[in-house]
Amino acid sequence: MNVNNSRLLHLLDVFSQFGKTPLNGVTRFALSNEDKLARDYLIKLSKEAGFSIKIDAIGNIFIRRGGKDNQLAPILIGSHGDSQPLGGRYDGIYGVLAGLEVLLSLNDHNIETERPIDLVMWTNEEGARFSPAMMGASVFIGNLSLTAALSEKDKDGISVEEALNNINYLGTDDFASYHPYAVLELHIEQGPVLENNQTEIGVVTGALGQNWYQITLTGLSSHAGTTPMNMRQDASVGMANAIVKFNKLGLREVVNQGRMTVGQIKLTPNSPNVIPGQAYFTLEVRHPNEQSLINIERKIYQILNDIARENNLVFDIKKVVSLSPVKFNSELIKTVQESCNSLGYSWEYIVSGAGHDACQLNHKFPTSMIFIPCVNGLSHNEAENITDEWCKNGARVLLNSTVALANKI
């Protein structure tokens, strides 16, 4: 069975207008007016196609195409509709609209599945406006309380609850007893691997675990002109050495898909003629293996301890995020793999380097993901792009996999 790729490409163009930026990207923050436009249009299209709509208390939208037996657990497909500032036009929304195309294609072919199929648009996956990321999915599975989520505020002091009310998406539908048979999320890879390998589909086996650290090195601020080099307690030198050593440690883990990134730095007092007495920086570590994350953390402490001793500094380290590696459901991975084979697409196993709503859902429901390549591996960038062929390939694999699962009794 095929999808109507022209229709899907048109929908992607239409939705890219909701928050369009000058360089053809998208800024569509969660629960913004631009998000409302996307939500409203998705619901309009779904109602016109005869699908039923439900909205929960955190604003997640659920669109149902009924099956022969609507008492059977549904197949849940979809992704998120919000974006990063100056983000791309495919991140998240491609998975939503390809999911809608699955439902519309089934209508086109007058196919009735045994199980119902639900399409979801999750609230605030990106975390660009409200913290934390993956909010809607986290509330949905109970990893984040609804009360805590609704009370989160953006930089302007507007709470999630107020924002939901402002755009009329504070839903009342109860999903306490909802338990899908399977969850599939289609997404762009957001990295260069598939394109570099000329592979059409990524069969996602899991996602990297993550540890985020805040590190402070403290020395002594003093005059840059009067303090000899060998008598300094320069926190910036300690930080520079640490960054180089962390990079070398990360490079040794490349073969195991490990990644280490220093993303923020701050020197105090941050003056041209004062030796920095304090250096603050963040370190993010990602790895698919839990024990490796533990081993890397031990090495981080060793590196900081050595640098502090060598440079007469004191260090402080706080772990602010700790996410275990994700392993997706083996049967769903097999289903996606079989779909690729039946459609004649090249595929490879891939571990997601990014977090996704599916990673949260995997805590509670059988879950997996499907990746397509993106041009030059770019994402969270206005230049984010996919080819028409990649677009079709992903949607066809999603359709084939969804139908296979929806016809299992």
Automatic annotation (TrEMBL):
<keyword id="KW-0378">Hydrolase</keyword>
<feature type="binding site">
    <location>
        <position position="80"/>
    </location>
    <ligand>
        <name>Zn(2+) 1</name>
    </ligand>
</feature>
<dbReference type="Pfam" id="PF01546">
    <property type="entry name" value="Peptidase_M20"/>
</dbReference>
<feature type="binding site">
    <location>
        <position position="126"/>
    </location>
    <ligand>
        <name>Zn(2+) 2</name>
    </ligand>
</feature>
<dbReference type="InterPro" id="IPR002933">
    <property type="entry name" value="Peptidase_M20"/>
</dbReference>
<dbReference type="InterPro" id="IPR036264">
    <property type="entry name" value="Bact_exopeptidase_dim_dom"/>
</dbReference>
<dbReference type="InterPro" id="IPR010158">
    <property type="entry name" value="Amidase_Cbmase"/>
</dbReference>
<feature type="binding site">
    <location>
        <position position="91"/>
    </location>
    <ligand>
        <name>Zn(2+) 2</name>
    </ligand>
</feature>
<dbReference type="GO" id="GO:0016813">
    <property type="term" value="F:hydrolase activity, acting on carbon-nitrogen (but not peptide) bonds, in linear amidines"/>
</dbReference>
<feature type="binding site">
    <location>
        <position position="91"/>
    </location>
    <ligand>
        <name>Zn(2+) 1</name>
    </ligand>
</feature>
<dbReference type="GO" id="GO:0046872">
    <property type="term" value="F:metal ion binding"/>
</dbReference>
<feature type="binding site">
    <location>
        <position position="380"/>
    </location>
    <ligand>
        <name>Zn(2+) 2</name>
    </ligand>
</feature>
<protein>
    <submittedName>
        <fullName>Allantoate amidohydrolase</fullName>
        <ecNumber>3.5.1.87</ecNumber>
    </submittedName>
</protein>
<feature type="binding site">
    <location>
        <position position="187"/>
    </location>
    <ligand>
        <name>Zn(2+) 1</name>
    </ligand>
</feature>
<dbReference type="Pfam" id="PF07687">
    <property type="entry name" value="M20_dimer"/>
</dbReference>
<dbReference type="GO" id="GO:0050538">
    <property type="term" value="F:N-carbamoyl-L-amino-acid hydrolase activity"/>
</dbReference>
<keyword id="KW-0479">Metal-binding</keyword>
<comment type="similarity">
    <text>Belongs to the peptidase M20 family.</text>
</comment>
<dbReference type="InterPro" id="IPR011650">
    <property type="entry name" value="Peptidase_M20_dimer"/>
</dbReference>
<feature type="domain" description="Peptidase M20 dimerisation">
    <location>
        <begin position="209"/>
        <end position="310"/>
    </location>
</feature>
<keyword id="KW-0862">Zinc</keyword>
